[in-house]
Amino acid sequence: MKQVQPKSLLSLEELQAKLPHELKNIQVRRSELLTSLRTLTSDLGCGSDSADEADLKSEHESIQRELNRLAAEESNVQDAIRASRDECYGYCDCCGVNIPLSRMNSSPFTTQCVDCKGILEVRAAQQTGYRMPSGSRI
């Protein structure tokens, strides 16, 4: 059986250097989606049958969800770039602890450690009235 070599982690500096490029990629993708959305919007209601109309609406909603996801991701990248500029990239903006390099590699835009992120998610869920399933743990 062949052993899988662990992927080497990028340094914090290497991750920081990738942030502007990642932001540009997100902006390009968002621009492409907005163009698609405009085309779809102009096609809606142009005398197509109800099945075509339903397909167009479904695709419109899908693009809208992707745009919302990209907007959130763009905001996260901008926060990471700001943290980099302020020389606090790689540190939790809630508690100040050094975020492990493995977490930074898996989520280079993160600005919270795992513990603080979990607490923030629980608080957000509580504010929306979401109840964790019994027996669930953070």
UniProtKB/TrEMBL annotation:
Source species, domain of life: Bacteria
GO terms of molecular function: zinc ion binding
InterPro entries membership: Znf_DskA_TraR, Znf_DskA_TraR_CS
PANTHER family reported for this sequence: RNA POLYMERASE-BINDING TRANSCRIPTION FACTOR DKSA (PTHR33823:SF2), RNA POLYMERASE-BINDING TRANSCRIPTION FACTOR DKSA-RELATED (PTHR33823)
Entry keyword set: Coiled coil, Metal-binding, Zinc, Zinc-finger
Organism: Vibrio jasicida
Chain ranges of the Zinc finger DksA/TraR C4-type domain: 89-119
Metal-binding found in the keyword field: yes
UniProt keyword Zinc-finger present: yes
UniProt feature coiled coil, ranges: 53-83
Cited PROSITE patterns: ZF_DKSA_1 (PS01102), ZF_DKSA_2 (PS51128)
Protein name according to UniProt: DksA C4-type domain-containing protein
Residue intervals of every dksA C4-type zinc finger in the record: 92-116
